[in-house]
Structure prediction request, 279 residues.
Amino acid sequence: MIERVLFDIAETRFVRGCVSLLNRLPCPGSRWPVKVYGHRMFANKNDRYLSLWLRKTRLSEALECKLVSRLCRPGMFVADVGANLGFYSLLLARFVGPTGRVWAFEPDPSNFAALQRNVRANGYSNIETINKAVGAVSKQDSLFISDIHTGDHRTYATSESRKMVPIDVVALDDFFAPEQRIDLIKMDIQGSEGKALEGMKRILTRNRGLAILMELWPTGLRQAGSVPEKVFGDLRSLGFGVELCDEKSGVLKRVDDPAALVNSLKRNEYVNVLLTSPK
Prediction:
């Protein structure tokens, strides 16, 4: 949540320019790693270095970290969609152990290089890194790069001018063999979650007890071409329950009306939700 507050502060032109300049300066995180939740992590940009320190001091996404530890068991198979530097990939790999597996998807070349470095630095052999975005269909596309928040790259155009880089997009139903079990999906892809869910319909229907921990940012979903209410309606029709990750209280809260939750969030507000299918 604090990362989003910082992002909102950076909305003014002056501050955006300052942050953009900061990200062009050498990053101390490329030499001096931050130890976060027991992992040595390197950063590729200064905003990512700050993000690691926020997590180290437990100021960012503490509840989600507890959820990951609760949801994961040894031997599970997990997809980390939008892996960024690999913070969650490393946690997931620790909890699923050597008999489990983590597939970490990250399309941005710079973030992907940092992800690979962090996996190597921590000695995990149960993480497969994939330099692709996840979407509704497998194709070639473009990634719109943010120079002020390198966790905010998007697979759709924004109102601001952004550099574009070519990327590969994969539907998870194409990537995984039909017989591959998936137990948990962590997903944070700046509004493209709806499209990603469209590309994993087989996974959603065949994996009983599947849990999805994802960011809900209605504005981003709409900008990416999805209708938030329909996204949750489709999931509910498959039997998925919805719980809100309430950072203030530190607990999960059952959501009986996802549409009301969607409509309660302002333009730049987002929350994390846990979706669980019947066992």
User: Anything to note?
Assistant: The domain at 59-276 is CATH 3.40.50.150 (Rossmann fold). The chain is about 35% helix and 25% strand. The longest helix spans residues 109-121.
